[in-house]
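Think of the structure tokens as a kind of shorthand, similar to the way a musician reads notation: each symbol stands for something richer, in this case the local conformation of the backbone. In the example below we present two proteins back to back. Begin with the first one, reading the sequence and then the tokens, and try to describe in your own words what changes along the chain.
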Amino acid sequence: MLSDTPAPRCQLSVIFALPLEAHAFEGLVTGSRLYHVAGLTIATGSLVGQQVAWTVGGVGEAAASRAARLLCDGHDPRWLVSAGFAGGLNPDLTRGQLVLPDRILAQAHPQLPPHPVEASLAARFWQHHPPATTTLISVDSIVADPAGKAALRQATGADLVDMESWAVATVAETTGRGFLSLRVISDAAAEALPREVARLSQPLSPVRRLGTALGAIARRPGAAVDFWQLWERGLTQAQRLARGLADLVAASAEQP
């Protein structure tokens, strides 16, 4: 529901890139209220007894940074979480695996040191999920084929790849907040994504995204089957992500 009341302060705020990533999480939250701010819809509600705020900010560094700053301005969270899907670079990571990286790199800023994650909150989360030392790298465009993933891993040593975590981590650092990235592996290192996914993963309005998808299907009818399979897999992966976020919110409630 839309709300005219002042937005509440939330201990933890979550930034998703895509609606599908947020879908199952939104189903777990109760008492949702929606706020329209600067063209984004920001939502609040209760999850495992804690107030949370979240938004679907869009794909890429600029969109993620903007969404994170709006959440900081409106809700003053203690922690920012970049949540969603990621591509696997390390062959040991399997599709559907939940990963909480312990450091964040940026392909566009190789001279900068990695962003760390909030160690105390991560440690509580890892009580429920076995820890693993993993490095995430954020890039400017999707890495869709095994050869590209292997090259990126060899060049950077990263274990998984996304397009938003570095931007959110940067906002967290500059505003004095804790940061975590929680990701589900959508495609393993040896798996190739349909070539049309690269275009659909760029910053696009909903109308342009639909037009791009329809154009792809017109040029290659088999793309419709690929898109449907990705959607079905995405629904399952979003459920895994939502359960992980619920555990993370519960862990945040135990922080002093």
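Once you have a description of the first chain, move to the second and do the same.
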Amino acid sequence: MRPIRVSDGSVWVELRQRNADWLGPWEATPPGGGPPIVPSRLVFTAMRRSLARQARTGQALPFAVTYDGRFAGQLTIASIVRGSLNSGFAGYWLDSAVAGRGVMPTALALVVDHCFAVVGLHRVEVNIRPENTASRRVVEKLGFRHEGVRLCYLHIDGGYRDHIGYALTAEDVPGGLLRRWRGGQSG
């Protein structure tokens, strides 16, 4: 895990293009039938700048996921709200070439531990389409609590789609999520 860098642009575009069919069914889309967003250097630059601005104001924590020292995906804690809620939402994607190797569960565990121990968040949520079994397996392996179905939650692929809500609080992982994950204490 590391910050997203300007130099990640080319590999980000290549991975997003190569994985378009694999990631497409799960990607948020703008309502109203606008044209699909095609991965490009311009899109990467705008996304990175937006995430950097949100990070500076404490609204997001964007990370590059790496595998064998190479950029392999992205994980962002977004919509961070402080005060009595003190929570954020995790979203992630990974290159299909490295899927199934424990990369994303490890990355998510690292980031959740950072959120709880360093950033001081109390709760991290993840919302996943019911059909996205690979992503659901990530949070289930880590022991995220199933909290119900959010009807018509997010616009994806031309319509508002239901999502399953999962969450963890700091009290759920007093010794740290990565430690629990590595110790095999989760499902």
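Compare your description with these statements about the second chain. The chain has six helices and six strands.
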